[in-house]
């Protein structure tokens, strides 16, 4: 997995307006079915991981763990973030390919 490319895609998603970050904003968009992918930081709290894993599973939205809060925040030009949501389906597909190392 090429971490540098994943962080670049996250930055691109942020600049294009296709990324939401933070627990509250991401959870709101997740419930409204506006997201295609949820990315959780490896060092997010157990409660946060369980909440987003359960909610995304129920709504058939992909959810992956990747990076630390610090790295995720830095990649989008913000303070540390435990959870990110990708809105655009094609962008989320590209990020999933990089995360999973397989074609969709």
Automatic annotation (TrEMBL):
<protein>
    <submittedName>
        <fullName>Ribosomal protein L7Ae</fullName>
    </submittedName>
</protein>
<dbReference type="InterPro" id="IPR029064">
    <property type="entry name" value="Ribosomal_eL30-like_sf"/>
</dbReference>
<feature type="domain" description="Ribosomal protein eL8/eL30/eS12/Gadd45">
    <location>
        <begin position="4"/>
        <end position="94"/>
    </location>
</feature>
<keyword id="KW-0689">Ribosomal protein</keyword>
<dbReference type="GO" id="GO:0005840">
    <property type="term" value="C:ribosome"/>
</dbReference>
<dbReference type="Pfam" id="PF01248">
    <property type="entry name" value="Ribosomal_L7Ae"/>
</dbReference>
<keyword id="KW-0687">Ribonucleoprotein</keyword>
<dbReference type="InterPro" id="IPR004038">
    <property type="entry name" value="Ribosomal_eL8/eL30/eS12/Gad45"/>
</dbReference>
